[in-house]
Amino acid sequence: MAMAADLKRLRPLMLGGTGSDVGKSMLAAGLCRIFRQDGYSPAPFKAQNMALNSYATPEGFEIGRAQAVQAEAAGVACHTDMNPVLLKPQSDSTCQVVADGRPEGCFTSRRLYEPSVRSDLRRRVCDAFSRLSGRYNPIVMEGAGSIAELNLLDTDIVNMPMAEYAGAAVVLVADIDRGGVFAAAYGSIMLQPERFRPLIKGIIVNKFRGDLRLFDRGRRMLEECCGVPVVGVVPFMTDIHIEEEDSVSLERKPKCARAGFVNVAVIRLPHISNFTDFDALEHSEGINVYYTIDPSALEGADMVVIPGTKTTVSDLRWLEESGMAGAVRSVAQSGTKIAGICGGYQMMGRTVDDPDGVEGSPGCVAGLGLLPVTTVMSGDKRTRQIRFAMEADNRHLCGEGYEIHMGRTTLAHGADPLCVLSDGTADGCRRGNCLGTYLHGFLDNPEVIAWLLPASEGKVSDYRRYRQEQYDLLAARLRGCLDMEMIYNIMRYD
């Protein structure tokens, strides 16, 4: 999209954090929407993201889901330049590195911080920002974790060094709900090297509970001790729903079935990914989605979902060791619908073979045996957006989704694929009350939900329209508690 010709160019705005999960992603989405409403052509940017929630761009590349959400709020198509480096954890000390939308292998923590690797990634994120800033105005940047991780400063490519490169105005986001907001904000600023402190132009106090006027004195005190203005105090917003960046949010979600609801149990795998696949279900009237690691909790479900995962083989072993595999087989035998998405689909088959050790040690493990398919892992990753069509119980269903997966799955002779993709190929498998698909977003489609959960028919929301409404609600709420005039002032070039 071309930049609005009648509006002056604004300085990039970076939301830096006093820590992780302070609300930077949601605020960035809201500000993207505000700038869009005000006639600008904004775009999000996060140099390096660490998350298992990802998304496929229209060109078929992979970025963090949070930047795709922010791009949607900004009204633009997502692009790899908005998140040039994505780290997808595979263990406590290893992660898959996705750079410029393509996987570049599994890196240990030590290798990831080697000077040559950091230098290459720094060049790539700077190039991506320069390309993006040439197409959009303004750029809404998001930092990662805390901006005051001094031990990582020399290798940092996402926080203050990136703000310095971009010439960004930094607004520090501090979470008052977790306590210690004065120390967190003051420490985050005072620990900065001298050259970085002038970049910090303001503070947002986020997740305030209660009457905002009760913090008026605290606001003045925070400004006095930190030496920068508080540009807003934002309430804890439980009534506005923006897709979450990472699995920290799962701690706040339901964990058991509820009487009087259509209950969908999502197995909380150790390396669960793309749990936003269930947001449309969560926001549909009468449906209770709960996340569980308790085998007995599956008994109250109308449908059990095995979600995506970054480590299919490891999480498949966990299913067996935890007793969840036996519980899944038991409820499947009793007639409960079982659905597998991506890695969950692979687990539902007969075997998952990793001959080259793509996910770790080479080997072949038995699957749940619910679908007549076999999977062979490979280093080639498929990422794309695609439409599908399917026949189900005398219904013709159409929808859209996206693929992000490694490995290829083969159906046994005579097995029924789930659907036909718009390129003419088949996807997934269906047998009785069990089905699997590689399509993330499969459960975003109202017709699919109504087919799988007949009791919910007529109650399923138009999730795409719902998301747009939420961006507008968030923007309106932020306009009421942020000093947008001050924010625009700090973004204007002198």
Structural class: alpha/beta
Described by the principal axes of the CA atoms, the overall outline is globular
**Order of strands in the sheet with most strands:** 2-9-1-10-11-12
Q: Percent of residues in beta strands?
A: 25-35%
Q: What is the residue-averaged pLDDT?
A: 93
CATH class of the largest domain: Alpha Beta
Instruction: Enumerate how many helices there are, as a single number.
Output: 14
What do we call the CATH homologous superfamily of the largest domain?
P-loop containing nucleotide triphosphate hydrolases
Number of strand segments: 26
State the end-to-end CA separation.
26 Å
Question: Could you walk me through the main structural features you see in this protein, from its secondary elements to its overall organization?
Answer:
The protein is an alpha/beta fold and 494 residues long. The chain folds into two domains: 251 residues, 3-Layer(aba) Sandwich (Rossmann fold); 209 residues, Rossmann fold (3-Layer(aba) Sandwich), CATH 3.40.50. 28% of the residues lie in helices and 29% in strands. The protein has a six-stranded parallel β-sheet, sandwiched between helices. Strands 15-13-16-18-26-25 form a six-stranded mixed β-sheet. Strands 19, 20, 21, 22, 23 and 24 form a six-stranded mixed β-sheet that branches. α1 packs parallel to α2 and α1 crosses α13. The longest helix has 19 residues. The two termini are 26 Å apart. 49% of the residues are buried.
Give the helices and strands, then pairings.
Elements: E1 13-17, H1 24-37, E2 43-45, E3 48-50, E4 54-56, E5 62-64, H2 65-74, E6 85-89, E7 94-99, E8 102-108, H3 109-112, H4 115-133, E9 139-142, H5 160-166, E10 169-175, H6 181-190, E11 200-208, H7 216-226, E12 230-235, E13 262-267, E14 272-273, H8 279-282, E15 287-292, E16 303-306, E17 308-309, H9 312-322, H10 324-333, E18 337-341, H11 343-347, E19 351-354, E20 363-366, E21 373-392, E22 395-411, E23 419-421, E24 426-427, E25 429-431, E26 434-437, H12 446-452, H13 463-481, H14 484-491
